[in-house]
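Same chain as my last thread, 160 residues:
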Amino acid sequence: MLLFFILLILFIFAVKFKEMARILAVDYGKKRVGLAVTDPGRIIATRLETIPTDKIWIFLENYFCKENVDTVVVGYPRQLNNEASEAVRYINPFLKKFQQKYPEMKLELADERFTSRLAFQAMIDGGLKRQKRQDKALVDGISATIILQNYLEMLRNKQE
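reply #2:
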């Protein structure tokens, strides 16, 4: 009987631990990668940082060691006609390598059309000065946040 309760407690802990996993968003670019992450409750998307593209693998390895992440959402650029844009030629190799390195991680693609424009508008609405709005790293980070917030809203709409 005691063994049953111990297994039950371990099962409940495992379920709760899984629920507390974060979702990481990646706005992968040729020069920079914008990153955003959810809180453990998966309610709010927050800009994490923007790093040079050549540092993404080191960043991911370190971040996954420190934080419980079970899903990664990658912005996938599409054209207005819904076909993949030319930018996929450098995003697809990233996706392939990610799946090889982290096969247990859930990988989702999210439409990232207009996220840069939305990020720029959010900067204007937030009152950022013109010089700060020209910071491409900031735009990439905000774009990742928009990608992630849109993904969270899609998940909520599926539950309703």
